[in-house]
Amino acid sequence: MKLSTTIRSLVALTTCVIATAAHAADPLPLAVFDFQAGERSLEKTGAEVAVLLNAHLSASPDVFLVERQEIDKLLGEQELGLSGNVTPDTAARIGQLVGAKVIVSGRVFETGGKGYIVAKVMSTETGRVFGALVTGRSLTDLDAPVADLSGKIADVLAKQGDALVADVETWDARVERLKALVSGKRLPPVSIAITEQHLARPVIDPAAQTELMIVLKEVGFEVVPVEDSRSRTDLVTITGEAFSELGMRRGNLVSCRARIEVVVKDAGGKFVSTDRQMDVAIDIAEHSAGKKALENAALKLADRLVPLLVK
User: Over 50: is that where the pLDDT of 66 sits?
Assistant: First the structure.
């Protein structure tokens, strides 16, 4: 009895350590936006600071930089972001668009005969903001001050990583939380059908549908395969579409974005709700990254679908 308990404890501890190590080893998706200029004459300087900062930070193996052309492609000519006017309130929304967990923005200005570069390091997940400042005699030579700023930002990322990135809930912990949420309630039988594409190509093993089916089944729902659902009139149906697409490549790493849209109807075919979720994932292979992004999005959808199904 004691030996069995000890073994279970060791397995749980080992799993926790492995998960923590894997999480710590993941590169941090980060985007650098143009720095705002205190005056019109420094507008070009603000853009140059962002370019140089990108170059310095790209040398870090712990950072996965969203390239500038990717940001331009996603945000187009929107004043928000391209002007450097990123606030903590908008960081989360921009982060979803560009796939960054941390956004670096800031301001350049001159006063009192000195030049200042002020950076804001903003989390798109926790809302925390940290600052870094460098000064110089002028802003005509940016090499030294930007290199100094890069080091300070890297120090913030290393020391404040826990505050910048939200804790990752393990799959088992999520299932147990959802089980407790529906404990004692009637769980309707469910059928799930979500078509999926990657880069306009249909796939035969839809990750979003599979992930939702597994989670709901583990929570306690009767999950009926689509092929067996036609003869059933008591099923809540979840239907929708999902897609994943290539985000960017850096070295051996690939990022993919994914989006899921679903519609929920009750057993009588009456509309209950609709929902959608986006997510981003990084892997060494494009399709694996796409699947991972879809699985992540499906898990977040499950958090909202499960309580909806038992109302």
Answer: yes
